[in-house]
Amino acid sequence: MRPRFLLGEVWTGLRRSASMAVSIILVSAVSLFFLGVGLLAQRQVEAAKGYWYDKVEVSVFLCTARSSEPDCKGGAVTPTQRLTVETLLQSMKPVVKEFYFEDQQTAYQRFREQFRNNPVFADTPADAIPAAFRVRLSDPKDYQQISTAFSGMPGVGAVKDIRQVLEPLFKVLDFLRYAAWGLAALMLLCTVLLTSTTIRQVAFSRRRETAIKRVVGASKAAIQLPFMAETLIAALFGAGLAIASLWASVAYGVRSLSERLRDFAWITVADVWAVSPVIVGVAVLVALLVSWLTLIRYVRL
């Protein structure tokens, strides 16, 4: 089939079935948008984990005279006990990448800075804030080794990892990612059903034209190709709308969040371009596969 003739057939078909083409474009755009949301959510989780896990500090809090921790019944940490903790940290390299000691005064200043706008902690005395060893690990997954080594050790009140605070956030992001994928799968199913029904209706409306083509010797491939091309073009327009919507969401919505919450790794428009080939690929695959199977199974050519 000559390309010029094929393009003419496709253009005529789209013009005559404009409403059905628009319906395929819209439902494809919605389903592919949610697919993109799922892919971007995956990248957001990975970016956030990589950003924060690289900054994870394990804090070995030492006992104070005011400590209520069960392991601090012996009172405030002694210089000997503190030296024992420091020596053990030295011996745990390379699991321990680096560490430093934060005395009570420095810890209190940090505490006041973090909660300067919270009146509940305004009257907290300096001796209530424990000194601590701030530990960076070569691999954040080795936190359990530090916890096992120092928990219950004389002079140590608690061993805490910032991931205990971050994990609930990551779970929420994971839930949103799976929810987006589930909705995308549902919308893709709707796209398949709508596309199949649309092709059958269009083919039925052109049954006389198709019969004439068969009489003059046109092959099945020559008859099927315009239908498939029309579906593919509509799906690609839908993919374009989905990508444009994702770009706008990230460029304006996510960028606004990143300006307010700077201590967090956010996705950028570069991530939208990174997932765009997947979105276009899914659009092409679904359009060609569904149109081909529909024409073979339901439409007599």
Give a written overview of the molecule:
The protein is α+β, with helices and mostly antiparallel strands and 301 residues long. It folds into 2 domains: 181 residues, no CATH class; 106 residues, Alpha-Beta Plaits. 68% of the residues lie in helices and 8% in strands. It contains 9 helices and 4 strands, in the order H-H-E-H-E-H-E-H-E-H-H-H-H. The protein has a 4-stranded antiparallel β-sheet. Helix 1 packs across helix 8, helix 2 runs antiparallel to helix 6 and helix 2 crosses helix 8. The chain is elongated, with a radius of gyration of 31 Å. The mean pLDDT is 78.
Pick out its properties.
301 residues; alpha+beta; Alpha-Beta Plaits; four-stranded antiparallel β-sheet; 9 helices
In short:
With 301 residues, the protein is α+β, with helices and mostly antiparallel strands.
Lay out the secondary structure.
Layout: H1 3-16, H2 18-53, E1 57-62, H3 79-91, E2 96-102, H4 104-114, E3 132-137, H5 143-150, E4 156-161, H6 163-205, H7 207-215, H8 220-260, H9 269-297
Antiparallel strand pairs: 1-3, 1-4, 2-3
Write down the secondary-structure element order.
Answer: HHEHEHEHEHHHH
Give the number of DSSP strands. 4
Low-confidence stretches: none
* Alpha carbon gyration radius: 31 Å
So how many helices? 9
Strand proportion, as a percent range, falls in: 5-15%
From the helix content, strand content and strand pairing, which structural class follows? alpha+beta
Label the overall shape: elongated
In whole angstroms, the N-to-C terminal distance is 17 Å
Question: Sheet bearing the most strands, described?
Answer: 4 strands, antiparallel
Helix content: 55-70%
Strand order, main sheet: write it out.
2-3-1-4
The domain count comes to: 2
What oligomeric state best describes the polypeptide chains here? single chain
